[in-house]
């Protein structure tokens, strides 16, 4: 069996939900407990926050509070103005005190701001990473254990490096034209081509150019101050110098492409220290030029500015710089490297929603589980959906088993959810020797391997039901195995 530590899958705390529990009847007495995959080193970690309490009856308290304020204000209130005298308008009164309307009081409530902040810019789907899922599936099949479908989905969602993320623009069906862009060097997605190119220029410029430092004439004149970037510490030049705006643009494009230029410019420091001014003048006696790598005939030998380098990439290296597509699929591990913005916020928000209730992800992995050799079925017509590497077998009334096996099945029919040791003790009898217990245990393992008994993660055992005929058992198994994937 492969060790799962090699792919970064480690246990935390067990969780379990059911893809069908929301529509099912109250659980049966023998309903399985939440899945614990810790023995495989696969358990997801969850942190659930407290439910929000919404209080009521505030209007009465607010009205009482207003009456108390009015009573105390009677002595301070200015005299009523005579009729016909001009005074502040009703709108001004609302903006200055108690006359504020209900709509204005709640127009910027935290809840509305939170909803606005999470307005999605893309639709998101989460799928298992191929390499991680292959190792996970092999370990689960060899264990012969039956797992809840929701628990498998939560296990995949728990770590970002176990995911493959598919994103599409909102209402992509109404706009079939490609609208998402991909940074080719690292595969990180962006909403626009400009953002992707900025990312490549700031992170991967050395893959396309060699930088060459050349001597030029230093600036002449008297300068009283220079601008300095507080984040990088770079001195960007005197505001009165004719290359000042160009230097700002180049520095912004290379180091802070995801920050709005006006915000970047507003955050600069103006330094009047003569030493800093002299340092800038000296630095301006040299200039960085960009020499394209793998230069072909007809391409320029040197580019004198970062803007010229950007134009070169779009003209001669576009396919190696940026790709535009209607949808993008990328590894979940890249989510941590994505720059802040609406795209990353939308993906993270969708991921948190799925971690709370992974219905879409559970439905999305059904096909992949079957492809990996798993068999899916429900316990009852609207019960929990299970997945196991062994196809379950429902018993026929005419089926015959050995005495030991039949006793095992009768024991579980009478009391389901027992542990293996308890079943062995009951079937083997009091005072049975180790040989007798070993024979019962071997028969029990045979029934599990053949699919007549399901063994859950916590060791509980359930015998598959008895149906009127094998044909009916096969039909029910097929119907449950192909249960609706869009519920």
Percent of residues in helical segments?
25-40%
How many discrete domains?
Answer: 3
List low-confidence stretches: 1-78, 83-117, 481-487
**Integer-rounded radius of gyration:** 34 Å
Question: How many distinct helices?
Answer: 19
Give the rounded overall mean pLDDT.
76
Largest sheet: 3 strands, antiparallel
Extended strand count? 16
Distance between the termini: 34 Å
Structural class: alpha+beta
The fraction of residues assigned to DSSP E strands is 5-15%
* Strands in their spatial order, largest beta sheet: 1-3-12
Short description:
39% of the residues lie in helices and 14% in strands. It has 19 helices and 16 strands. The chain has helices spanning 58-73, 90-96, 102-105, 110-117, 130-143, 149-158, 193-203, 244-255, 261-266, 274-283, 306-316, 318-321, 342-356, 359-364, 366-371, 403-414, 420-428, 434-450, 470-481; strands at residues 122-128, 147-148, 163-169, 180-183, 189-190, 209-215, 226-228, 235-237, 269-271, 286-292, 322-325, 328-331, 375-378, 385-388, 453-455, 461-463.
Architecture overview:
This protein is 39% helix and 14% strand. It is α+β, with helices and mostly antiparallel strands and 487 residues long. The protein has three domains: 1-45 and 111-173 and 327-393 and 467-487, no CATH class; 205-320, no CATH class; 395-463, Arc Repressor Mutant, subunit A, CATH 1.10.10. Strand 7 and strand 8 form a beta hairpin. The radius of gyration is 34 Å and the shape is elongated.
């Amino acid at each position: 069996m492969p060790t799962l530590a090699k792919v970064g899958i480690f246990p935390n705390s067990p969780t379990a939900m059911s893809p069908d529990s929301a529509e099912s009847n109250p659980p049966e007495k023998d309903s399985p407990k939440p899945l614990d995959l810790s023995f495989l080193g696969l358990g997801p970690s969850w942190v659930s926050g407290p439910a929000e309490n919404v209080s009521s009856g505030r209007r009465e308290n607010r009205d009482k509070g207003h009456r108390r304020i009015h009573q105390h204000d009677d002595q301070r209130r200015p005299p009523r103005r005579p009729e016909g005298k001009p005074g502040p308008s009703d709108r001004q009164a609302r903006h200055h005190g108690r006359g504020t309307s209900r709509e204005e009081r709640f127009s910027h409530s935290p809840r509305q701001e939170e909803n606005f902040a999470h307005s999605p810019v893309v639709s998101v789907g989460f799928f298992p990473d191929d390499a991680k899922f292959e190792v996970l599936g092999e370990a689960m099949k060899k264990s012969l254990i039956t797992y809840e479908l929701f628990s498998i989905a939560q296990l995949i969602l728990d770590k970002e490096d176990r995911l493959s993320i598919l994103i599409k623009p909102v209402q992509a069906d109404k706009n079939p034209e490609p609208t998402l862009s991909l940074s080719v060097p690292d595969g990180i997605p962006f909403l626009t081509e400009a953002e992707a190119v900025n990312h490549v220029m700031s992170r991967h410029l050395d893959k396309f150019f060699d930088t060459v430092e050349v001597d030029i004439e230093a600036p002449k004149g008297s300068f009283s101050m220079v601008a300095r970037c507080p984040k990088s510490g770079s001195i960007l030049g005197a505001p009165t110098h004719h290359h000042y705006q160009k230097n700002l643009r180049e520095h912004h494009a290379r180091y802070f492409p995801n920050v709005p230029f006006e915000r970047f410019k507003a955050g600069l420091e103006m330094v009047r220290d003569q030493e800093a001014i002299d340092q800038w003048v000296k630095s301006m006696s040299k200039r960085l030029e960009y020499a394209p790598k793998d230069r072909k005939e007809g391409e320029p030998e040197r580019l004198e500015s970062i803007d010229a380098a950007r134009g070169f990439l779009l003209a001669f290296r576009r396919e190696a710089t940026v790709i535009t597509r209607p949808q993008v699929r990328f590894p979940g591990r890249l989510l941590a490297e994505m720059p802040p913005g609406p795209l990353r916020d939308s993906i993270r928000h969708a991921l948190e929603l799925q971690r709370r209730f992974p219905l879409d992800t559970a439905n999305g992995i059904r096909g992949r589980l079957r492809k990996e050799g798993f068999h899916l079925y429900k316990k009852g017509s609207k019960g929990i959906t299970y997945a196991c590497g062994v196809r379950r077998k429902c018993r026929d009334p005419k089926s015959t088993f050995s005495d030991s096996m039949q006793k095992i099945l009768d024991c579980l029919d009478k009391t389901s959810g027992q542990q293996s040791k308890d079943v062995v003790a009951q079937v083997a009898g009091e005072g049975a020797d180790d040989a007798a217990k070993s024979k019962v245990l071997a028969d029990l393992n045979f029934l599990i391997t053949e699919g007549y008994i399901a063994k859950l993660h916590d060791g509980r055992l359930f015998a598959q039901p008895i149906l009127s005929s094998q044909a009916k058992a096969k039909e029910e198994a097929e119907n449950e195995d192909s249960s609706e994937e869009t519920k």
